[in-house]
């Protein structure tokens, strides 16, 4: 049998004349993989373009950028990806390289490479479906949580069938191209002849490192065009390399004293003046004439709850009947914008009341402990302050962050098995998390302590599974079911809480952590940051709508303002009811682009020291250039620059409230 297998390449020799000459060379396999990589990259780029459709505005100029610049990034990615193969091809002695039994190991290696390329293409497709982007910082971040992420994929897709299909395709392609792969075995090679090839193939990644930058693809005003111009493999490693961004190194700055002076002028409100004359101090003294109200507080951050899921904002599917009802009975914020596009950004904003930081969220940074937080303020007032999460809190560093900033963490491990009606890879069903929350509130009430709970839901997340019979949309059928079930669980929680003796003295704040989708026509599509927030407390908050521009980071000080708390604040958000009209602003951002919204203009700061003034469209997410405004630009820079400096120099740390 072995003799037959060994004879196959010899038979292939008769086809040698039909094979291109560049394959009959020691580095022929490298060139073959480069060609296949370019072909696969072109295929996934074309598939994503067709999927995106008209949103990519496929003009001739856009198509030229997508495919020409895309090839440039493909080559850069291949230079890194295939460097180990180049080293192996150079190092292997000629006699061993041409040893007949080794050719089958070579073919197996070829099949494995093909499988990985196909797998990468399939992964890019699913990532684009979820985020409307090539691989980015989120993909890198998810690698740290393989249990949850792989579990989510297994529960969302027929993974076994997909992997089997990819493996079969890789095997068939490798067999079809076996003669091309084996062609290099026919050509004797010496180290002297291989050395120039190695120098070139080693120089390519070095050249790419110094001359190719993922930001070079940002040539168009259309974000989809820029994303399609990239290469997923290259984007992945570029995001891993740039996971933290030092503000002064990457962004537009002012002289530091000027940045602080501007921010110090923007921070005070009538009941929160600056605490000192120190030019680098952002601390304020918050005091109201009325007595403090030590009411219980339940803050529910709802996974991926875009504003446009609610009827109040135009939805006609009837997905949020309970939230719509609570909005009519409570205080609804109609122009509130999330800080970011991930849960950690929402948690950062709600707990710390800071603008979005470039790069990694503070929640996941090493210097995340001992900060001025909402939990610390409540704990200083004698509250039982807790963070409740239906999954395991090691995910996204939640346990470490919240426990180091004044909260007691209650996660999946604290929820008794007998109580769980359903769970998936992200955690227990929202209704089971709320049952645990009721127990926690009861315990605080019995101990005679006011209660503050921040509850983070998980059910409105792929794979969108939940207990049967709760709503009229079957489990595991998509986003609409996830939204409607989360709404049902919140309504059920409020109904059960209404029976409790502590209900009348409780304030409920319900807000999204971020929108369901972050993709849009521009880099910072405003419609993909619009989230709902409502405060419900029938005995203490009258029904109303707050229609002024507001930021997610304003909710913590606004909540404390409703309670008339006196405290020394290092929050950078406003009590919205203590803010003079005309001073409203909001912050939106990705891990690289930072946005500052005031009035009808958006300042976008990017990591190339760039700045743009835009007029955003709140309906479709597009943005048009706006006339220059040096004062608005300087104000935007001052918020981000001074915040970054304060965080790095202890200016946002807890000092006793």
SSE inventory with pairings:
Layout: H1 2-13, H2 28-52, H3 60-81, H4 83-91, H5 94-97, H6 102-131, H7 137-142, H8 146-156, H9 159-176, H10 178-182, H11 191-211, H12 223-228, H13 232-241, H14 247-250, H15 256-266, E1 284-286, E2 296-302, H16 321-329, E3 331-337, H17 343-352, H18 374-380, E4 384-389, H19 398-403, E5 408-410, E6 423-424, E7 427-428, H20 430-446, E8 451-456, H21 479-497, E9 506-512, E10 530-536, E11 544-546, E12 550-551, H22 555-562, E13 567-569, E14 586-589, E15 594-598, E16 601-605, E17 611-616, E18 623-625, H23 630-648
Parallel strand pairs: 2-8, 2-9, 3-11, 3-12, 4-5, 4-8
Antiparallel strand pairs: 1-13, 3-10, 6-7, 9-10, 14-15, 15-16, 16-17, 17-18
Helix pairs in contact: 2-3, 2-6, 3-11, 4-11, 6-9, 15-23, 20-21
GO cellular component, one term: plasma membrane
Organism: Chitinimonas taiwanensis DSM 18899
Protein name: Phosphoglycerol transferase MdoB
Can you give a write-up of this model?
The chain is of the alpha/beta class and 657 residues long. The chain has 2 domains: 2-241, no CATH class; 291-572, 3-Layer(aba) Sandwich (Alkaline Phosphatase, subunit A), CATH 3.40.720. 44% of the residues lie in helices and 12% in strands. Strands 2, 3, 4, 5, 8, 9, 10, 11 and 12 form a 9-stranded mixed beta sheet that branches. A 5-stranded antiparallel beta sheet has the order 14-15-16-17-18, with helices on one face. A hairpin with a 2-residue loop joins strand 6 and strand 7. It is globular. It starts with a helix and ends in a 9-residue tail after the last helix. Residues 1-17 have low confidence and may be disordered.
